[in-house]
TrEMBL record:
InterPro entries: NUDIX_hydrolase-like_dom_sf, NUDIX_hydrolase_dom. Residues 1-134 form the Nudix hydrolase domain. It holds the Pfam family NUDIX. The lineage of its organism: Bacteria, Bacillati, Actinomycetota, Actinomycetes, Kitasatosporales. It comes from the Bacteria. This is NUDIX domain-containing protein. Gene3D superfamilies: Nucleoside Triphosphate Pyrophosphohydrolase. Coiled coil: none annotated. It comes from Streptomyces niveus (Streptomyces spheroides). PROSITE patterns: NUDIX.
Length: 139
């Protein structure tokens, strides 16, 4: 018998955190009203690093340098635009890259955002914005 409580659904994602001159690189997918930290969901048994490399290349048309990838932290929050109880877990990595970033595939727009843009990103990304602001990286 069910107790009537909703089961929690967890969306497991990996994200690339790129901060330059006090701003963070964010992307907006076609048809979406908020910006996200670039990245996405793993496919099959992909590792965090494999997911990160694939997603960043797909979304931004740049190649992350695997040896420079560093785990910055993992955040969890209610998933934007999903029913209550659907959470997103975002494992965040920094890393150097080759190429020039450009919106690709489902990405309609990329933009460098400051802490003042916090309200324009998904709830899980807002947690990262808060930490980056507290550490003095995001202005």
């Amino acid at each position: 018998m069910s107790d009537g409580g909703a089961a929690t659904v967890l969306i497991d994602t990996v994200a690339w955190v790129r901060v330059e001159q006090g701003r963070i690189l964010c992307a907006r997918s076609r048809g979406k009203d908020v910006f996200y930290i670039p990245g996405g969901k793993r496919e099959g048994a992909e590792s965090d690093l494999e997911t990160l490399l694939r997603e960043v290349e797909e979304e931004l048309a740049v190649a992350l340098l695997p040896a420079t990838a560093t785990h910055l932290g993992t955040y969890e929050a209610q998933a934007h635009g999903q029913p209550d109880g659907v959470l997103v877990r975002m494992s965040c990595y920094s890393g150097d890259y080759l190429g020039t970033s450009a919106a690709s595939n489902e990405i309609e727009e990329i933009r460098w955002l400051s802490y003042g843009d916090r309200g324009r990103v998904a709830p899980v990304d807002q947690l990262l914005f808060d930490d980056l602001r507290a550490s003095g990286e995001l202005t």
